[in-house]
Amino acid sequence: MQFKQDFFEQLEGFYSQVYPLPISNPHWLGWSDDAAQLIGLEKPNTELLMQLSANYAAPGASYYAQVYSGHQFGGYTPRLGDGRSIILGEAIGPNGAWDVALKGGGPTPYSRQGDGRAVMRSAVREFLVSEALAALNVPTSRALAVIGSDLPVWRESQETAAITVRLAKSHIRFGHFEYFFHSEPGDAAKLTQLVNFTIQQHFPHLSTDAAGYKQWFYEVVQSTAKMIAHWQSIGFAHGVMNTDNMSILGDTFDFGPFAFLDTFKEGFICNHSDHEGRYAFGQQPGIGLWNLKRLAQTLTLIIESDDLIAALNTYQFELVQQYLLLMRAKLGLSQPNQSPNAINAEEQAELGNKDLQLVGQLTGLLETNQLDYTNSLRRFGQLDPSSANSSLRDDMVDLAGFDTWYQAYQSRVGEVADVNAWQCERNSANPKYILRNYLAQEAIIAIEENGDNSKLLQLQQLLQRPFDEQPEMEDFAKRPPQWGQGLIMSCSS
Fold first, then answer.
1. Which residue(s) pair with 445 in the sheet?
2. pLDDT the model gives residue 485
């Protein structure tokens, strides 16, 4: 790997230099060829394994942990920082630079009495979900590898340590800006330095002046809205949307108790620490805006309040429009600009509201009838919208409710000239395979009990092509067994 060190060299005071501690008997549990290509790597090798397990120094690496704060479950914590993640630097790839971080690399000044380690189960889950989301076209950090060891660590019981090698276009979070705003007094100079760095590194089309700052925050609002629209469309629950877990680029990262929906449930909670359902699946759009408002507060030192409010006011529209775009593709609802007869803005808005109602009525039916979200949407790839018969109906208990919805749906879709092409388009928008929690758990158990990572590798290969049929993997698309339904995870997961 070839590194540059822009964050380390230009933002002194925004991190602490700290060196990772090696893990014993390191071995590859998983490796992503796709992620490796992002930073110009080819195949894993022993020397790289020793570098990424902290047994050898990586040439050109700086090794540091970033400092930030954040709102956790709504309450402000003034000093957080990378408690178990150590960044090597920005690896230069064929299409840009990616931060390389060792998640589970040992204690840092921000570990808060923790050991700085990641347990194998959490490392495996982050590896799998990072690559699964990327294959689903969701903005996300990536995972180059997961490295196992025989180093014992203690959580509720003794487990073994592992390292996820995380790649991110940036590790800058909302919490970075909060840290310097809430210092006494608010440090406008540091905030300006951080905003300027963020723009120069990641928004190079913008200027570092008042006009550039205004446009930059608008783009942060837009990218955050788009990310959450993707989550809602695929049924992904992040589980811990604290402001320190929100990327300034609108990428999904900091995976803990995440889950994909099995049975559709608007109020689904995947984090057993979330007793009040603050981060329930259906709450995510509102929390996204709440977090952006916390970020906007920090920027009042350098951006006019009216400009911040104007940007925040675009959030809901952007989220709805992106969600509509994604759900129309899933259900086969033509976009207004694809209609033979162009319609004006008012008519587009009216059609959008009707489509949102159709989507909401469908998800309501899925919840009422306790149906699997992913499998139900995949059925649209077998549907002939002109036919009165629908395999979707076979799963319903509320037949009258479904029939009413289906008639409205058929009216909206209209005549389909090429049914086969239409069905292929639905299959390209609705995945057949997702990372169900029980599948990840089975892979983890195989490693824990037998040191066997074959299930992990099989699952990784499956999730690289989530939209393909893969007949030999049919069982992986089934609803979870009884023990695997609605699994709730802890933050250490």
1. none
2. 76
> Is 165 in contact with 143 (CB distance < 8 Å)?
yes
3-state DSSP call for residue 211? helix
Q: What is the CA radius of gyration of the chain?
A: 23
Beta strands in 11-74 (DSSP E): 15-17, 27-31, 64-66, 70-72
- What is the number of alpha carbons within 13 Å of residue 264 lying toward its C-beta? 23
Annotated binding site for ATP: 81, 83-84, 103, 115-116, 166, 173, 254
Cis check for the bond before 185: say yes or no (omega within 30 of 0): yes
User: What is the pLDDT, as a whole number, of residue 289?
Assistant: 98
- Residue-wise pLDDT for 173-210, tens only, equals 999 999 999 987 778 999 999 999 999 999 999 999 99
Q: Is the dihedral of CA 71, 77, 83, 85 positive or negative?
A: positive
pLDDT of residue 490: 61
Q: Could you tell me where the DSSP H helices lie in 69-209? A: 120-135, 174-181, 188-202
pTM of the entire structure? 0.95
Query: CA-CA distance, 423 to 406, in Å (whole number)?
Result: 17
Can you give the length of the chain in residues? 493
Nearest-angstrom CA–CA distance, 471 and 479 = 16
Give the pLDDT of residue 489. Answer: 67
Give the contacts of 91 (CB within 8 A, at least 6 positions apart).
1, 2, 3, 39, 40, 97, 98, 99, 100, 167
Q: Decide: 89 and 61 in contact? Cβ < 8 Å.
A: yes
Give the DSSP letter of residue 157: S
**How many Å apart are CA 20 and CA 85, to the nearest integer?**
9
Active site residue 395: no
Q: Which residues of the chain have pLDDT under 50?
A: none
**Tokens linked to 147:** 């490295």
From the list 6, 99, 187, 244, the catalytic residue is 244
Annotated binding site for Mg(2+): 245, 254
Sequence-separated (6 or more) residues with CB below 8 Å from residue 463: 128, 131, 132, 135, 433, 434, 435
